Amino acid sequence: MATKVTMEALSPTMEEGRLVKWTKNEGDPVAAGDVLAEVETDKAVMELVARGDGVLRKRLANEGDSSPVGTLLAVIGTADENIDSIVGGAGASAPAAAQTGQAAQAAGGARATGPANQTVADTKEAAGQSAVPASPAQSQGEASTPPQQKAGGTGASPPAPRSAPPPPPRRPAAPPPQQQKGNGAHPTAQSAGGRQRTSPLARRLASEKGIQLGAIQGSGPGGRIVKRDIENARAAATTGMARSGAAERLAAEGDFKDVPLTQIRKTIARRLAESNGPVPTFFLTAEFDVSRAAEMRTQLAEMGDQYKASFNDIVIKAVALALAEHPEVNAHWLNDKIRQFNRIHVAMAVAVEDGLITPVLFDADRLSLWEISAKARDLAKRARDRKLMPEEYTGSTFSVSNLGMFGIDQFTAIINPPEAGILAIGGVEEKPVVIDGQLEIRQRMRVTMSCDHRVIDGATGAKFLQTLKGFVENPLSLVI
Amino acid sequence: MASYDVIFIGGGPAGYVGAIRCAQLGMSVAVVERDGLGGTCVLWGCIPAKALLEAASIATKVSKSADFGVTVGEVKLDYGVAMKRSRAVSNQNSKGVEFLFKKHKITWIKGTAKLAGKNAVTVKADGKEEKHEAKKAVVISTGSRVKGLPQIGLELNKTTVLSSDEVLVLEKAPKTMAVIGAGAVGCEFADVFSSFGTQVTLIEALPVILPLEDADCSNELTKSFKKRKIEVLAGAKISDVKVGKNSVTMSVEVGGKKQSLEVEKVLVAAGRAPVVEDIGLKEAGIQLTDRGFIKINERMETSAKGIYAIGDVAGPPMLAHKGSREGVVFAEYLAGQKEVHGVNYGNIPNATYCHPEVASIGMTEAQVKEKKIEYKVGRFNFSANGRARTSGETEGFVKIIRDAKYGEILGAHIIGAHATELIHELAVARENEFTVEEVDLAIHAHPTLSEAVAEAALDSLGKMLHA
User: Fold this and answer.
1) What is the CA radius of gyration of chain B?
2) How many beta carbons lie within 10 A of that of residue A221, not counting itself?
3) Architecture of domain A197-250
4) Which residue in chain A is spatially nearest to B430 when comparing CA positions?
5) Residues A275, A279, A282, CA angle at the centre, nearest 5°?
6) Pair A66, A16: CB distance under 8 Å
7) What are the domain boundaries of chain A?
8) How far is A372 from chain B, CA to nearest CA, in Å?
9) N or C: which end of chain B has fewer CB within 10 A?
10) Catalytic residue from among A326, A332, A345, A453
C-alpha cells in the first residue's frame, strides 16, 4: 500500500512551504521517520519525514517549489507497486489552464517520446483525449512508465477534471506550471486534492487569467482567496506591468538578478502590506556633514564652469556609488519576487509647472560627477520645457528628491513603485556641532530615505545610509 | 437611571438577534419593546402567516387525499380555528425569545423609546418616563408597519379595508376578497384565503405577480393560481374605489378592459413603511434616504455618532433574515472583532410560502441580461423528479443561471414544493463561490427534491441525466 508524502503543516501558522532540498532520491529505500526533504516554513527550515516504509518511488515537487499544505509531494511504495493512480491524482489537481489543447499536446508529446514500441494508436488516443486533460504530472509519470502499465494507469486515473463550461478560446497566458521551476511558482497551489483556501470560482478565474494563486493574499473568511482578490490582483498586475515595462526594456538579460521570495520574506511582505497600505514604507533619517563637500564645490567652481557641481549632483553620485555596494536597495518589488539590478539608474524628481517628473540618470555609477552635473542640468531644463522623451523618465531603479532649495531642512518622499526606496534631500544649513569635544559651526544636510519594507529591512537601509554618508562626507571619493 | 453597553429600540428579528450576539460578546444589553418580543416577524408576519399557510396546505392536501387511498369524511374549513392556532404559535415563539433574553441576561424594557442625546434613551411606559444610558451604542431596530393606499382611496379602516395585521386575526374567511399587491405577502394571503373558500382576486399594478422574482417563476405561479380559481389581474389599474360598510367596490382596468369588482374585504399588501416617527431622529441629526429609511454604512452606523440602525427601518430588502444578519454584523463590529464577514446584500434569499412555494437567490434572468453578462440557463422540472411524484407535488422547477465562462452561479430560482428549503444549497454555494460544477459534484441523496437542484446545475452544463 503506497504512502503519500504531502506538504505537512510544520508550524501552526504554516499555509505553504518551500521545498528546499530533497534528501532522498527516487528509488531510495526509506523507513518511517527518515528525513525525506528540508522544507522552509514561514518561520524556519524543518525536516519532512517519511510516514511509511518502502521505496521513494516518485518525487512530484522540485527543489525551490512552494506548495500549499496538503499538496502531494512524493509517493512511497513497494518497488513494483503501480502508483499511477496516486500520481495521476496529483494530476487531477491541474489547474483549468492545463485543460487546454496545449496540455493535451504536452501529453501527446510525452507519449511520442516514450518507448519505441509505443503504437501510433496510443499516440492518437492521447491526442484525442483533449477533453480529458492530461495533467503535467500525469504525463510525466506516464512517460517513465512501461507501456503495458499505461492503459491501466490511464484507466485508473481519477475522474477527469470536470470539463469546464464550454471551453471558450482559452488563452493559456501562463505556461503550464511545471515549466516555471525554481522561480517560486506554486505548481500545485490549485490542487483539488489538498487543503486549499481558494474558492472554486476564484481558482477558475485565476487559471484563466494566468494568475499565480500563491502570490495572492486572500480576503475571504480565514484568508480564503475569493473572486474579488483575483479581480484586484488583475487590476494590480495591469498597472504594475505598465510601470515595470520600461525598466525591463532597459535592463537587458544579465543586468539584474531575480531573488526568489523566501517564506520569511513572503510573510514579512504580506504582514507589512496588510498593516501599511500597498507599499509598507518606513523612514530613515540621517544628518550628513557636508562641510568638505561645500569646500570641494567652491574649489571646483573656481576651476571653471565645466567643473561646477551642485549638492544635488554630489548626492546623486554618492547614491549611485552606495547603490553599487548595496544591490539589495537597488531593487524592484515585483509581487512574486524581488528584482535586484546590476545597473544603477537614478531618477531625480523635478518640479514642473503642474506637477513633477522624474528624469533618469542611467548608469549613474559610471558617470563622472561632471557628467552627472551636465546631464542633470540638461534633463531638468528639458523636463521644465516638457521636452523629455518617455524613455528618459522611465526605467529607474532608485530615486532622489531634493527640496533643499526651497528651504526645507527635512522631509519624506513617496516611493515610486516598484522601486524599493527614495531619498529625500533637505537643504544645507550651518549648525553648531560638537567635534572632538569642541563646538564647531559645520555645514549639515539631512536626508531621509523612504524604504519599502518588503524589500529593505531597517538594518539594510541603515547600512546603505552609512555607506552614503561615507561618500558624501569624503567627497574626494566621488571625483577619483 | 440604568446603564448598559448597548440599547436596542425594537425587539424584532434585527434587534433581538443583535442583542443576543452583543450579549454573547460580553456586552450588557437592553431591548426596548412595547409589544411582544419577536416583533412583526414573530407576531404579525412570518410566523403566524406560515401557520395559516400550513392550514391552507392541509386543506388542499385533504381535498386530494382520496387519490392516495385516504378517504376523509366531511371536510369543514374554519378560518377562526386556524387563526387561533396561528396566534398560539406566535405567542409560543415570542415566549421563546423571552427565554433567550433571560438566558443571555438581556433586559427587556417595556415601553416606547426615544433618543435622548448621544448615549441615552428615554422610555415611556404607563405614563412614566425613565432615562437609560447606553455607553457604547444605541441601535434603532424599530422595523416597519403596514400601510394603506390612500392615494387610490384605500385607507385602512379595520373593517373592510384591511392590512395583514387585521387579516391575521379575522374570525372567519370572507366570501370574497381583493388582495391589492402581489408581492410575497399578497400571494401568501391569496393562497390562504382561497384555500379557506374565499373567492380571491389578486391585483398587481406591475405586469406580473411576484414582480421581483424571475419571470419564469411569476408565470408558473400565475398558472398555478389560475388553476386554483384565484383570479389574477396583473398590470392592473384601480379606480373608482367606493368603501361601503360591508363591502368595497372598485373598477380594475387590465389591458384597456375595465371591469368592476365588489368584495367583502380588501387586503392592502402593497408594501410596508419604516417606523421612523417619534424616535427623535431629526434632533439627533440622523439622515434618511430618499425613500424614508435610515441611512447606514456597512457597519450599520447612522450619520449620528454612536447611533446605529438595522433591519427594516434601515432599508430594503425588508426581510427578517436580512435584519438578523445586520444585527450580528453590527455586534461583531462593535466588539472590535477582526474578521467580520459583512452583510452580503447580493446574496440574501427571497422566499414566498404560497403553494407552490417560490424561492430565489441572486439575479433574475432579466437582470443578468441587462448587465450584459454571457450566461447559460439550466432547468429541471419537478415533474421529472421521483420524490416530487411520490408526494404528487410535481408543479414547478429549479432554474439556475450561470456565467457562461466561469460557471459562477449568478442566480437560482425555484418554484415548487419546499422551494424555500431547497434554495439554501444554492445560497451556500454562492456565498462560498462554488460553481455549478461543485453543486453537481456533491452527491445528492435519492430520492429527494434536492436532486432537481443538481440536475439543473448539470443542465446548465448541457449534461442533464434525467432529461
Assistant:
1) 23
2) 12
3) Irregular (4.10)
4) A201
5) 75
6) yes
7) 3-156, 197-250, 257-479
8) 51
9) N
10) A453
